[in-house]
UniProtKB/TrEMBL annotation:
Keyword Disulfide bond recorded: no
InterPro entries with a match to the protein in the record: Innexin
Protein name per Swiss-Prot or TrEMBL: Innexin
GO terms under biological process: monoatomic ion transmembrane transport
Keyword terms of this UniProt record: Cell membrane, Ion channel, Ion transport, Membrane, Transmembrane, Transmembrane helix, Transport
Location(s), subcellular: Cell membrane
Region (Disordered) residue spans: 1-33
Family the entry assigns: Belongs to the pannexin family.
Membrane topology: Multi-pass membrane protein
Source organism, top-level taxon: Eukaryota
A GO term from the CC aspect: plasma membrane
Length: 443
């Protein structure tokens, strides 16, 4: 079906413009030709590709696969868990209580409902139940009614950095998603359409770069421009480091969110949840039987009072919570998943800092592609390559190229850099500098 759509689009002459969101599965194949991280993205895409709405959820490509691991894959997993828990709670019977023999059926239903709405408490079978209300309140389990809501809240927290990133980049004057998706789709169009698409992207990037340039003069302006090359403290749309600094901030939000949710769940569950995974691994290493966890007890007790006229009767019944069978496995998985996502987000953030913040790495990235295209030969080329990097593309331009490389492949990045280099050399200021250099060499 996908091939027929691509063939029909090719004969219609639409090229690669405007169909970025209709072929998310095709983009997954394009990712496999880039860096090593693309294999992880390809694997996750294949696992989640069976969902009917996945192509619509996947949407945009204005970030890398670690970001999508946070705001897309993790969100889908948490929503699936929410559906599982909600089905058990609202469709099945989440609690069953052992009632006295004199209780009729209506009394049993009331006991089950009141013990579900109020909080039960856990006591080990060999221990005596507490006799005082204050002691009971300290032992209450207060989370099981709210598990679906906390899972949805977690999913929202993972989505917030992505929403913030897209809101802020919308004001940057460049459509990152359009650039990356057009570049990725050039692998599935005819050569003529491919060349036109690449030229279109180059013209679009050139207009964005020129519009984002600072045309005011003055010592203070020049000082800020120099500082912005080496330090992200001075940043803005006119200093060429707006997108890079913003992206680093969003990366930090993803990392802080993954780590912070361990502590949020620790407060929500009322236990030392942030060490839960270590306890599970310790039990597995010792070969002990993981029969019941005090954090997610299956058998609890419920204390309630029934008023009959002027008499008040106290009852303590034993209840079983089948829902905790699911909660225990879900939160074990969530603990390991949060640690996994936090670890990958940390390494990913450090890699982006290493490649984008330091000036020599940006220059090395451009020089590699210029050498591939035989554009880095003469001394003039070497001098102009530095100006091409620092004065023309600057940090944001190189960031966009790296984003294309991570979502498409390096062949497209090479062609884009070649077109941008030729476009830069044909500018009047460069031709004038080139002519002066040639005259001096002749003399």
């Amino acid at each position: 079906m996908t091939r027929e759509r691509h063939r029909a689009r090719h004969h219609a002459g639409a090229g690669a413009h405007g169909h970025a969101h209709a072929h998310a599965h095709a983009h997954a194949h394009a990712h496999g030709h880039g860096h090593g991280g693309h294999f992880g993205s390809l694997w996750l895409d294949s696992v989640l590709g069976s969902f009917a709405t996945y192509a619509r959820l996947k949407g945009r490509y204005d970030d890398d696969w670690i970001d999508r691991l946070n705001h897309l894959y993790t969100t889908i997993i948490l929503i699936i868990f929410t559906i599982v828990v909600s089905t058990k709670q609202y469709v099945g019977e989440p609690i069953h209580c052992w009632c006295p023999a004199q209780f009729e059926e209506s009394h049993v239903d009331y006991t089950n409902n009141v013990c579900w709405v109020s909080n039960t408490f856990y006591v080990h079978f060999n221990d005596q139940p507490p006799r005082y209300t204050d002691m009971i309140s300290e032992m209450e389990i207060q989370y099981y009614q709210w598990v679906p809501l906390i899972l949805l809240f977690q999913a929202l927290l993972f989505k917030v950095p992505c929403i913030l990133w897209r809101i802020l980049t919308a004001s940057a004057g460049v459509n990152l998603d359009k650039i990356v998706t057009l570049a990725a789709e050039t692998a599935y169009v005819a050569p003529d359409d491919r060349d036109r698409t690449i030229k279109h992207i180059v013209r679009y990037m050139d207009r964005w770069i020129e519009n984002a340039r600072e045309y005011r003069s003055g010592c203070f302006i020049r000082l800020r421009q120099q500082i912005s090359k080496y330090c992200c403290i001075v940043w803005g749309k006119r200093y060429g480091n707006y997108l890079v600094t913003l992206y680093m901030f969003i990366k930090l939000l993803y990392l802080a969110n993954a780590i912070g949710q361990l502590f949020i769940l620790n407060e929500f569950l009322g236990t030392n949840f942030n060490v839960y995974g270590f306890e599970v691994m310790d039990h597995l290493a010792r070969g002990e039987n993981w029969s019941e966890s005090p954090r997610f007890p299956r058998i609890t007790h419920c204390f309630f009072k029934i008023r009959q006229l002027t008499n008040v009767h106290d009852y303590t019944v034993q209840c079983v919570l089948p829902i905790n069978l699911f909660n225990e496995k879900i939160f074990i998985f969530i603990w390991f998943w949060l640690v996994f996502v936090a670890t990958l987000s940390t390494f990913n953030f450090l890699i982006w800092v290493y490649t984008m913040i330091f000036r020599q790495h940006r220059l090395r990235y451009l020089k590699k592609f210029l050498r591939i295209n035989d554009c880095y030969k003469s001394e003039l080329d070497k001098k102009m390559a530095v100006k091409f990097c620092e004065q023309y593309l600057r940090q944001d331009g190189i960031f966009v190229l790296r984003l294309v490389g991570k979502n498409a492949n390096d062949v497209l990045v090479s062609e884009l850099i070649l077109q941008l280099w030729n476009h830069y050399r044909n500018k009047p200021l460069f031709r004038h500098a080139n002519q002066i250099s040639d005259d001096n060499s002749n003399v």
